[in-house]
Amino acid sequence: MAREFEVCREQDLPVPPDQVWDAVATGPGNLGWLYPMEIEPRVGGKVTRGDATVVAWEPPHHFAVRATQEGGFSNTLSYRIVPADGDTSHLRMGIHWVHTGIVDDAWNWDAKTDVAEKYVDFHQHALAEYLRHFAGRPAVYVRSQRPEPTADPADFAALRRRLGLADDAAVGDRFTLLAPGPDPDPVEVVVDWLSADFVGLRGPDALYRFFNGSTWNVPIWLGHHLFAEDTDEEQATKAWTAWLDDDTHAQEL
Q: Distance between CA 66 and CA 68 in Å, rounded?
């Protein structure tokens, strides 16, 4: 028996539809707020994110990709973009998740739907941050994760403290982040998202994103969007991986 789940969100964005389209329907755009995803620009085109295919291509108004997964799941990521007042855009962003096999693991299904709800909210916010502050700037995407899953919320709490977040931190707070690298660089950042599951920080040349694993018993990981022109992807990945791995031994902080 097929089992379906859908999550949709709408928002107004401060740029015209063609700029939203460039952000969601092109490889360079996705690097700035989501993850690496090269897109063949046509219905039926291939997408370099799992076994994915373009299923809607109507620039600059409707774009969708469908990915198939193990166990009979398919996942459709869809964007509908319409003009709004004052050279702005209105976006309807959604995920349609379908399992066409037998659903015999209720926790697994519940975890998948929980992930879909929370990640759509977080990524939709990241899209708005990218369009407001970095639209059109080339980006480098840096991803790293811990080697082991975690079920302990204290692990992510320790990571937050290492970042410099106070226990009573709130969205809008500003502080100095010591970004890792050969020459650690103090960066003034603002907290743009803060929840039990995610931390989002915005610097003058970066969106820093940290993902809690304890909610779903998966590894803690990070996925940063770096816009500085001299960013070396390999070097930045090594530096942030070392920082993240070191946090596994920093529970006493």
A: 7
